[in-house]
Amino acid sequence: MSTNAGTVLEPSPKRVGQDSGGIESFFYDNKIVRDFGIATVFWGVAGMIIGTLIAFQLANPDMNLGNQYTTFGRIRPLHTNAVIFAFVGNAIFMGVYYSLQRLCKSRMYSDLLSKLNFWGWQLIIVAALITLPLGITTSKEYAELEWPIDIAITLVWVVFGWNMFGTIAKRREKHMYVAIWFYIATFLTVAVLHIVNSYEIPVTFWKSYSGYAGVQDALVQWWYGHNAVAFFLTTPFLGLMYYFLPKAANRPVYSYRLSIIHFWSLIFIYIWAGPHHLLYTSLPDWAQSLGVVFSVMLIAPSWGGMINGLLTLRGAWDKVREEPVLKFMVVAITAYGMATFEGPMLSLKNVNAIAHFTDWIVAHVHVGALGWNGFLTFAMLYWLFPRLYKTQLHSKKLANAHFWLGTLGILFYAIPMYWAGFTQGLMWKQFTPEGTLQYSNFLETVLQIVPMYYLRGIGGVLYLSGVFLMIYNLYKTAKSGALEANEAAVAPPVVKEASHNAGHWHSWIEKRPMQMAVWATIAILIGGLVEFIPAFVIKSNVPTIASVKPYTSLELQGRDLYIKEGCVNCHTQMVRPFRSETERYGEYSKAGEFVYDHNFLWGSKRTGPDLHRVGGKYPHSWHYHHMLDPTSMSPGSIMPAYPWLFEQDVDLSTTQKKLEVLKQLGVPYEDEYIANANEELMKQAKAITADLAKEGLEVRPESEIVAMIAYLQRLGTDIKVKETQE
């Protein structure tokens, strides 16, 4: 893994020289690494500030700031996109662009492609920063960005892959180190995930409908969502761990054989586990069972990677006391091990029955995100900046202070969220000796956990304050040195081996990037195909229900407003087949009820009650008052008010186009109905406003609140609903 860097005369940065002994001189591009490093820090702070704000919004609805662009529903996906794709994404590029050059003993294939990768990625982040607060969203978790941005993501990702494979092709090191295997698998799998999940039909420039509906859309989304975590937050960081941990510890990787088993078993098994996000839903049982089985199997390869990382530190634990970089790495790998043990445990049906839809899942996710991704990124930054600027780290004391602030931040975040999750899961299911729900009012649970939300916010402040210490430390480090934009290096050219001198069987793949890419692609495609083909081809997986009809034009506009406001971030539309849920909400949800839902809106968190059976439960006036002032109907509610819904009008110019696109996707709208869509919309809207007028509530039929009421009143009414306990 040595870089073999030497001192040479200063030729042109892009010219390769060769001395009489065959040694070639060249230059590593450090400027692109520095640029991605600065972007990592900048977007990390931005994403964490938004995360801290939304944490306090759940404790105090006044923190929604009283306008439509800063509500929890609008900016929660901005937080997730910022920390995943902006903070972690730039960290991945930073680490890959530094390590790949040294592992291949070659400058990046193209400086132009490097710049296109950098600026293209930053522009995508800016596009997300603008569109998500405006309510331009698909509502699909970790894939909220609309279709023009999806296309831009595809193009920039291709640029990254082109640059990466070009560099690998011109490498001077025949053997591809294990980190490169993970980089290759990451590029290929993320490309497949993004393309498949982003199949959508545009309605306007900023609006589309998913090409999949209901159960099938849910399966595709959580195949994508789970594996976005697997192949964006995990595999590239494992590759970075395999490079930076041995460098920082100055020790070889513990086991080469274990790294082979770790890599192939991880990428093969991970891709199957997505359905564990949909246990006890309307997804077919066979798909749920596959998700459980492969999730439990994931413990072995995940812990194989953790063990390989921690045992690399054998003989170097004394350095952990002294070096903050190693402190961050040890906690990062430990957090990875904890999260990858807890994930399979949460996939067991009996555990999932209590944990799902609660803050337990939020705690689990953030142990991985803050511990594994955050701390490993901080370790890379502390290790890289002194080397990029040819100086010493400004202050180890500040770095150690950052470590302890970050660790306390994680504890203050995770422990209250675990407590809140256990509280929710148990209170939701508690019955009295007489057989009735003990806490029939959902708000009773919410009020119990508000203090936990405040503590979670404090944890975020602690974690973020450590990041500000790091920024100061890195700035002072950079000021004390000078960026070596083009770092001189020397290496001998690749010597072609005789075919009979193959060595270890796996070396045949390691020395051939195309074979590595082909086998990795096969490994990740198998699980997806086994899950998708039956779900899409065998009709019995999604049985239809004759009484289920498409949404009316007004209800469809209301549904799109529901998506725009991000209501799905707090409310589910999936009643699971538990007595505690059917008593509270009504009849459990059936697969056939969602056949016309493009996109599906099952949700993944219950900050508020499930809404799948809310239709007809309350009069129109209840929804009117609830959206204007939630506490007037639900004292103590942490939901923000939505006064702009009463002031803004539905965009009637899109109605007909929306119905046409949905018909193209198989929703059975009649041509005559499409032609008269707005007339039908106004007819239903006037009926609602007439009903509101009886209670002295004057509202224009074209206002957004009327469409929202129409959608909410439709939910769950297509089948006979069991009487629910008030």
From TrEMBL:
InterPro entries: Cyt_c-like_dom, Cyt_c-like_dom_sf, Cyt_c_oxase-like_su1_dom, Cyt_c_oxase-like_su1_sf, Cyt_C_Oxase_1, Cyt_c_Oxase_su1_BS, Cyt_c_oxidase_cbb3_su1, Cyt_c_oxidase_monohaem-su/FixO
Transmembrane feature ranges: 36-58, 78-98, 118-135, 147-165, 177-196, 222-244, 256-273, 293-313, 325-341, 361-385, 397-419, 453-475, 516-537
Top EC class, one word: translocase
Subcellular localization, as worded in the UniProt entry: Cell membrane
Biological or metabolic pathway of the protein: Energy metabolism; oxidative phosphorylation
Cofactor binding remark: Binds 2 heme groups per subunit, denoted as high- and low-spin.
Major localization class: membrane
Topology with respect to the bilayer: Multi-pass membrane protein
Taxonomy, superkingdom: Bacteria
Name of the protein this chain belongs to: cytochrome-c oxidase
Protein source organism: Pontibacter indicus
